[in-house]
Design goal:
Elements: E1 4-10, E2 14-22, E3 28-37, H1 44-56, E4 63-68, E5 76-78, E6 85-87, H2 88-95, E7 99-104, H3 105-112, E8 121-125, E9 136-144, E10 148-156, E11 160-166, H4 178-191, H5 196-200, H6 202-215, H7 225-233, H8 237-261, E12 267-270, H9 272-276, H10 278-281, H11 284-291, H12 297-300, E13 305-308, H13 313-320
Parallel strand pairs: 1-4, 4-7, 9-12, 12-13
Antiparallel strand pairs: 1-2, 2-3, 5-6, 8-13, 9-10, 10-11
Length: about 325
């Protein structure tokens, strides 16, 4: 990577840009950090132009790495939760980049984890995994935001860190008790396919609030995700039940991810919704969803689980991947 590189984190809700600098230590630092709602712009290139005009001017880096919330194609990315298609060729032509790399936004989030200090995380379960006999270190990463991302971070003593992004958030939700089965049945009747993303994402707080209201015979209010978390803080029982249900599902999901990948060295939750659910993620019912995996329960209790709370993480990850 050259000394200066433009990095971006483009999600369905917010856009972040920054200029990354590589230092002698090898760790990137950020300057010119800029954030705006995605809905403020008709297309992605307008947001990029606004950032460049208001921060770096004409002296912007000629190399860039953009982390986008959507599956990667050869030249373009169609965002999963935003009606934008972003094309490399168009951006190179308009902004004169010598080198432009696209990567999945959640892969960038995951790649940041080895670069961040301990104060970028909140410990949910300390764990004690012990020494691994494998030459590889694997960390499961899952994040609830506009959608539900999942990736596997793999560390090799020789090759360094790499990320395997997935679309695991679209796996079917698996209820674990009668109450969860009632909620799942309501959602199944309304939406057909009930994925973990439908329940654990920002939109999930809205649909789960509606489902819990219906199951309990309450007329639901028309709430957005932020309304749900705010009402929960104010003591609204239905909102609190919604947050607890979503947190339990998220902990079930990340626990399944650890099992499927053998990430006994650790797991990390990320994303804005995960942070809003923090008061519920450490409750006994949520911890039990993470560890309660049958014959693997005692091993799951030894897996360190942390919550990533640094909002610049995807920018750091993009810079570290270049």
């Amino acid at each position: 990577m050259q000394n200066r590189i433009l990095v971006g984190d483009i999600g369905g809700t917010n856009i972040r840009f920054a200029v990354a600098h590589r230092h002698a230590s090898g760790l990137p630092s950020l300057s010119h950090i800029w954030r705006a709602p995605a809905n403020d712009f008709e297309k992605f290139s307008d947001a990029l132009a606004c950032f460049l005009e208001n921060t770096t001017g004409h002296d912007h880096p000629t190399q860039a790495v953009f982390a986008l919330a959507g599956p990667m194609d050869k030249d373009s990315v169609s965002l999963t939760n935003k009606d934008w298609t972003v094309r490399r060729s168009d951006l190179i032509s308009r902004f004169g980049f010598d080198r432009l790399v696209f990567m999945n936004d959640f892969a960038a989030m995951a790649r940041s984890i080895p670069e961040l200090s301990d104060d970028a995380f909140h410990n949910i379960q300390l764990g004690h995994p012990g020494e691994s006999l494998s030459p590889l270190k694997t960390i499961s990463v899952a994040g609830a935001g506009t959608g539900l991302g999942q990736a596997l971070l793999v560390g090799d003593a020789v090759k360094g860190w790499s990320v395997l992004p997935t679309e695991g958030g679209h796996q079917p939700f698996a209820p674990l008790d009668d109450y969860e089965r009632q909620i799942q049945a309501y959602l199944n009747a309304k939406y057909g396919y009930v994925s973990f993303e439908l329940i654990c994402s920002g939109r999930g707080l809205e649909v789960v609030y509606d489902a819990i209201s219906a199951v309990n015979g309450i007329t639901p209010a028309d709430l957005r995700a932020n309304d749900v978390t705010q009402r929960a803080k104010s003591g609204d029982m239905t909102a609190q039940d919604t947050c607890e249900f979503a947190a339990n599902a998220l902990m079930n999901f990340i626990g399944n991810t650890v099992l499927a990948s053998g990430s006994w060295q650790g797991a990390v939750l990320a994303g804005g919704v995960s942070q809003h659910l923090l008061p519920y993620l450490s409750k006994p019912s949520a911890i039990e969803r993470f560890t309660g995996k049958g014959k693997m329960e005692s091993r799951m209790a030894r897996v360190p689980l942390r919550l990533l709370i640094d909002s610049t993480a995807p920018l750091i990850g993009a810079a570290s991947s270049s």
